[in-house]
Amino acid sequence: MNKEAKEKRISSRGALQVSARCRLKNRQRKCYMTNLSVGGCLIYCYSSAAIRAGETLEISFRLNNASEEIVVVGTVARSMPFNRGAQDINHTLGIRFSDLTEKQKKTIVNFIHQYLADMRQDQAVS
Fold first, then answer.
1. What is the CA radius of gyration of the chain?
2. Helix (H) or strand (E) holding 109
3. How many Å apart are CA 41 and CA 50, to the nearest integer?
4. Do 90 and 81 touch, CB atoms closer than 8 A?
5. pLDDT per residue over 37-59, tens digit each?
6. 71-102 burial by CB neighbour count: b if 16+ within 10 A, else e?
7. Using CA atoms, how far apart are residues 126 and 116, in angstroms rounded to an integer?
8. pLDDT tens, position by position, 85-125
9. Cβ 45 vs Cβ 33: under 8 Å
10. Which helix (H) or strand (E) holds 21?
11. Are 39 and 98 spatial neighbours (Cβ–Cβ below 8 Å)?
């Protein structure tokens, strides 16, 4: 990640891989999240149709430390096509969350802190 991209982030992010679902243009799509903060996330989403910056979507996911599914609304801040094969069209989407409840913020922050602590412990053992 370049220095400019780091400076644009308001909240620290934790790298991860979490299965998620997103609802965009009244269609449910499977996706997976590769990083997360209280400000937003990065997801990979299958869609043969273009997904543009500025579009609103709903993302549903479950974190290990959460007793219930987290459902958030976000805006596509960045969209880049990601082709894994001739028939497999995906999009890498940078999402900015619109409104998180205090409970959702706390769940995400706690998850990231635990995830990063586990990563540091794993690296120390290696």
1. 15
2. helix 102-125
3. 19
4. yes
5. 999 999 998 887 888 999 999 99
6. ebebebeebeeeeeeeeeebbebbbebeebee
7. 15
8. 655 668 899 999 998 999 999 998 888 888 778 777 777 77
9. no
10. strand 14-24
11. no
